[in-house]
Batch of 2 targets.
Target 1
Amino acid sequence: MPTKPKIAVVHKVALTQDERGRLEALGDVRYSPGMPSGEDDLLARIGDAQIVVSASIVPFTGRIIEGSPTLKLLSIMSTGYNNVDLSAAQRCGLTVTNVPGYSAYSVAEHAWAMVMHLAKRLGQADAHVRRREFDWSAIEGLQIHGLTAGIIGTGSIGARSAAIANGLGCRVLAFTQHPSPERALALGVTFVKLTELLTQSDIILIHAALDSGTRNLLNCAAFQAMSRRPILVNVARGEIIEMDALLDALESGQIRGLGLDVLWKEPPDWNSAGMQRLLAAENVLLSPHCGMHTDAAFRTLSKLCIDNIEAFLDGCPANLVIK
């Protein structure tokens, strides 16, 4: 690799002046505005770069990877990397890195803000007063203290969510593919099977990564197991929940409230039958995958993304998704 590698930032990234300085000290940086309009545009933005910086919203398909023969490192500005065709990356010798844990505090806080909004019926309370009504008995909320919170996925975000749940006085159950007594003690949770978590939880928060084991994890059978009409919040990936099963459960009253910071397709097809049903449903709180969008989280994200490039150039790559 040349002394000064070519680095392509393939979409708009809000870097500070200091962060730009760090990145530009590592190579010849080319910044692109906005988002790629499609695969041909993305290929043009990559050009002959050896290093690409991109968020997980940009798909790196086999065509993109195979069509970028000079590309050696894909530095993902995200914890998730399900936008990358890892088989193609491995086949082409492309190193892929991510940034684990950068937004743990921000995303966990966002999840619990959604829980609080739904439990305390703040949307209804606000609308009530704006109608120039003022009857406290019209708005009955839910006390969080003493409830059972079920956390699906206990990585850095799930761990932070468990800490918030414990701080609020919840009994905390957790489901993970790799439970251990030591981890349970450290997090203050009880690891259980998924069915037990669904049956016993008043609040269910999804913090798992999307993979073959979690895709459509919450299906019709899962919703039928939710006997306590829980509040359900997903700040992980939309595809972890089966869409039709969720909408059926919401419309039938199987769940008390729903908070989604992620959807099945982003941005969604607003005219699709599923989105029409979701937007028409009551007790639903939606946000545009912005749980991680705080200045504190983005400064950590930018630093670690540039750290990953620096480590790769030093011959000691870190935070490898695939090498």
Target 2
Amino acid sequence: MRAKNRNNRSREEKHGANGALPRALKAGRQAREALSRLKNRFFLPGFLSEMRRLRIGGLSGGNRVKLLATGDACFDEFVNAINSARLSVNLETYIFNSDAVGWMIAELLVKKAKKGVEVNVIYDAVGCIGTSPAIFAFMRSGGVEVIEFHPVIPWRKYFNIDMRDHRKLLVVDGRTAFVGGMNIGNEYAGRRYRGGDWRDTHLRIEGPAVRDVQFFFFENWYRYGGAVVDISRHFPNMNEPGKKLLMVLCSKSRRQVKPIQESYISAINFAKQSIYITNAYFIPDARIYRALVRAAKRGVDVRLLLPGKSDMAIVQHASRYLF
């Protein structure tokens, strides 16, 4: 009888371990996921309504997005995309170094230009102040159209040293776009390219949102004297390869509105569940600072991932002052 009772208890314990408890855990997880989806449903309409009120941003569906979290992965994608170009390559960057990675990209661009691909490059004058002019002369002589953004000419009327082009974007054949934080330089590369392995993030985008990225490139291209291009090479008919909904914004507007800043504040204000921010130079203005504090006080999970080591000590100290 005692042995039978022990067997019964063991079967009950086994049933509890493999049955009721896992089911309860699963039910709890499903409930949390359902609550998360419900909160997100309330977030999106409010956020989009605010964007519409401010008359900034536009959504496009049917996109495919790939996250690139290392320099090696990013430069691999750059190389593959440029090599595959048949019509056009448009590159806009803050830093274009004359190091191993910079020359690798420059040589690829010249190679494609010599094969009849239309190649256009915009680089920032201050971001490239330490870059050898030889690399830009090499690209120009190889058929690449190159523009210097806002050259450093202090005596020019209305010159502003702070007016810089911090975009890092690449568009190939009007069908694939790359945007994010990776400049063209060894410091962003990893072991494969013998670089400094700086941590940054980039996105590869395919789909209708590529048109928006391309449009912003040509805004700067024509503003700073770029040659007229064959639009058919840059804005092809677009399919919808994925299911992602994207909103592409730039930092400037024709009105007195800062689209990216306003989108951040709106997203923070309408957040229901979580706000995760990673930023190399985190010095928020008063509006963003107050919005984050209010979000945390109403129960939103607010997390900041900031660098322990920075290439700009003064920015790091200013950022930590807010801690």
